[in-house]
Amino acid sequence: MGPDRCGQALLQIGVNMMALPGGRHLDSVPLPGQRLHLMQVDSVQRWMEDLKLMTECECMCVLQAKPISLEEDAQGDLILAGGSGPGDPLQLLLKRGWVISTELRRIGQKLAQDRWARVHSMSVRLTCHARSMVSEYSAASRSSSQEMGQIEKLLMEKCSELSAVTERCLQVENEHILKSMKACVSETLSTLGQHFGQLLELALTREVQALVRKIDASDNIYTTESTTGNLFSLTQEGAPLCRIIAKEGGVVALFKVCRQDSFRCLYPQALRTLASICCVEEGVHQLEKVDGVLCLADILTDDSHSEATRAEAAAVVAQVTSPHLPFTQHLSSFLESMEEIVTALVKLCQEASSGEVFLLASAALANITFFDTMACEMLLQLKAIRVLLEACSDKQRVDTPYTRDQIVTILANMSVLEQCASDIIQENGVQLIMGLLSEKPRSGTPAEVAACERVQQKAAVTLARLSRDPDVAREAVRLSCMSRLIELCRSPSERNSSDAVLVACLAALRRLAGVCPEGLQDSDFQQLVQPRLVDSFLLCSNMEESFV
Known about the structure:
- It comes from Balaenoptera acutorostrata (Common minke whale).
- Pfam families: Insc_C (PF19427), INSC_LBD (PF16748).
- Residues 96-548 form the Protein inscuteable homologue C-terminal domain.
- This is Protein inscuteable homolog isoform X2.
- Mean pLDDT is 83; it is low at 1-23, 27-40, 56-76 and 78-86.
- This protein has helices spanning 3-9, 43-51, 58-63, 89-112, 116-141, 146-170, 175-217, 221-235, 239-247, 250-257, 267-277, 281-289, 292-301, 307-320, 332-351, 355-371, 374-381, 384-392, 401-414, 420-426, 429-436, 446-466, 470-478, 481-490, 499-515, 522-529, 533-541.
- The chain contains 27 helices and no strands.
- Helix content is 68%, strand content 0%.
- The chain starts with a helix and ends in a 7-residue tail after the last helix.
- By secondary structure, it is an all-alpha fold.
- Helix 7 (175-217) packs antiparallel against helix 8 and helix 24 (481-490) packs antiparallel against helix 25.
């Protein structure tokens, strides 16, 4: 492993700093009230957090008899961490882990640039960071296993070796010798990163085990609430920690909470944590082993539970049926409870008191329509089209492109059924689809722009499928859908230059033209309908708007 990749690889099991929308792992379903990640905050707050881990580095520089660096990028480096005092071992691990992983990555970058003075000074700092983490964690946890002790020793030996070899490199002027020493430094840095990752995994596993045992054994509501909150915070550090939690019995312990009436007020928190853990395969497998789907079905179908509880249960369903996760497609136990779950979710959509509740319920329904085709037939029988279309006119429930994305996904998947067309016409659904073709982002954020593209694409797909029915096609022509489709094809800005939207619009336009060709001008017919689809696509995708 090269030095430039070391910093990226060392935390495969450590702290993944990717934040997830709303504190959830629901793929492509950003949620309201997004939770900022500890390390992904504004610069001032980040500085305030880092102050707890920093002291001036002059003391170490003097002890090593080295001059303080005056390089232009020295100010951007992490300063030596001093003792942060006794505290939560888990937070100590996460913060120190972030500092050390960042330092390792930067050393790899400087090594690739042959900046030996910086490599050495940062190696000295890294040794101090590692030593501080080991001593502080030992003091906070008050015990250490033999395996951890061995890895700690190996880590510190590699840190000392790195400092020594980089110091020797400073005294070498021969480029050939320096090149061979660079390979040695790179190997040492890679091994150091592996030891650090192993140590962090062991320590985090140990802390997770303690949390799970505490939840499992507790009959106190306040203790369980606090511990579950800590476990949820850990899930936000990324998939590696979710895997550890799943392997150490976190899913089993949380479902135990969800099966005790005395902990009813904690169900939403426990279910939200479960939804996060189930972003990894190990979490889904554990859920299936403990009959978690049956528990979710019981919660969703029990009206005595609060709306918040049922919404969080819907979030877990949305996660475990996500089409973006291949391992969820083998969730055999879900089929046994699917009808009950689908019925409860449609009811939750109908009665939702907020946009977030509707989003979670509709996201679960959208994913289920991918999970099994029987779900679409169930939705038809439950008059789900009416529920969804009525919700679109309720700004309290449907107020974002993310929610409309879920609705149009359901409609697109249901539109493969022939009997869907009559329900769509009866509920004025073609007019809604026409409106979805004009979806525009309000904030301009990448996530919202992408959501609007998905809405346009799926609306065009739905229209193309439904237009097999001549009545739907004629209604679409009457509502000027063809004009809007032509505009989307010819104007890249209207579709945000999305190729996916372009292909879907061309397909829908050709389907409508087959029923009502008189709705097209000759130029549109010759360019957008008559040629092969790929030729029309190339023509439209190469169109550039003139700003002259």
